[in-house]
Each structure stands twice: as C-alpha cells, then as structure tokens.
Amino acid sequence: MFYAPACAECVAAQAKLRGAAKEAVRDLEWHEVNILDDLDRAVELGVMTLPSIAVDGELVFTSMPTATQLRTALVERNKGSR
Amino acid sequence: MFTIGKLASLTSVSNDTLRYYEDEGLVKPAGKSPAGYRLYDQDSARRIHFIKHAQHCGFTLAEIRELLVLRGRDRACCGDVRKRAIEKKLQIENKIRAMEAMSKALDQLIAECVNEAQPAKECTIIAALERANVSMSMQ
Fold first, then answer.
1. Which one of B49, B87, B100, B123 has the minimum C-beta count within 10 Å?
2. Alpha helix locations (H) across chain B?
C-alpha cells in the first residue's frame, strides 16, 4: 500500500486494510510504503494518487478501497494464481 | 479598490484571463463601481499571485480551485495540501518518465537514419513510424 503521512485517511485505514488483506490470503506479505521514501518504486508502478495499492507488482487500487473490495480482489487474484 | 485593467497590470495577466478566472470561480470582483465596472481588492491580487505560483508548480485550474477552498477552510490542515502536492509530484514524475521514453525512442530513430540525402519516401524514420502505426492499429 502506497501512502504518505500527509494522507490522514490512508494512515487511518492502514490497520483495517492490512487486517482484511491478511484475512483474505494466508501468508500474504503486506508492505506499507511511504511514497516519500520510495518515490521511484511508486512511479515505476504508475502510482499517481494516494492511497494506491499494488498486488504482485501491479497497480490494483488507485483510490481507497473498502476492506471488502480489497478482500475480494485479493481472493480473486489468489484463485487465479493457483 | 482596482479596476480590472489595474488588477491586470498589477498581476501581469490579461483582462480576458481575469474574466476567465471569474467564470471558473477562482476570483470574483469585490464589488462594482456605480457605472457597473468590476472592482477588485488586495485579496483578489493575492489570489491571482497564488494561482500563478500554483500553475508554475503544475497544478491545473480545477486543482487550484480546490487549493483555494482548502486555504479558506478552517478545518483544513497542511497535510491536506501536502497530499495534493505529493500527488502532483507523482503525476509530474510519471510524465517525465513517459517523456524520457519518447526521447529514447527518438534517439533510436535519429541514429538509424544515417543517409540524410535519401528521398523522404525512403527515409528510415518515416518507415519506422509507419511500422509503428501498423503495429498500433493491429493491437
């Protein structure tokens, strides 16, 4: 999840989204990346808005998803990758 | 209070631009003269300078309108503005990457075209662009 400390809604939603992601996929690795610490990585993925969420190197959400939307997207991707 | 002409000369923008800013809801006259002419105050001049600086940083007029709203909102904090500045930087960095890729593509085309005396019809740049058209239309 790409965020910036200046994005209060990103910071507020982190714990909830992290929980939803880990609940959706076992052994999931969740990273919270402060854009200001790794701008190059964000630009490489095409991040232009905050928050943005990439899964396996692909930008999946470019605005704040609900926990359900994130869970559903991860479950679907996980099914497809099996 | 200033007339539109005076404000235009103070801020180095044209009268038409000031009217456009008014249509876009960015600046509005503080009042009207008895003859019905627009009159502006110091705050109008400050807003015009703000708009110009923000444009230099790449913000669009729609984004500047949001910044002006934040500027005047009691509950807004610096983080709200900083988030927008970070997003603008991301957009600019993405554009820079895209332009760098274009520049590299042009480098290649320029390097491949070594015979400048060749007729334009046989030019390798034209041929390469035609091939690119074909491959794009087939996608």
1. B100
2. 4-11, 15-23, 42-56, 61-72, 78-112, 124-138
Whether residue A59 is predicted with pLDDT greater than 60 in this model: the reply is yes
Q: Does the ipTM exceed 0.85?
A: yes
How high is the pLDDT of residue A79?
84
* Domain range annotation of chain B: 2-74, 80-138
Looking at the predicted structure, is the pLDDT value of residue A55 above 80?
A: yes
DSSP states of B104-117: HHHHHHHHH---TT
Q: Which fold has domain B2-74?
A: Multidrug-efflux Transporter Regulator; Chain: A; Domain 2 (1.10.1660)
Within-domain flag for A48: yes
Mean pLDDT of B74-81: 92
A5 CB neighbours in chain B (<8 A) are 79
B98 touches chain A (CB under 8 A): no
Q: For residue B137, what pLDDT band results from cuts at 50, 70 and 90?
A: low
* Count: domains in chain A: 1
Mutation choice for B interface testing from A10, A40, A43 by most B CBs within 10 A: A43
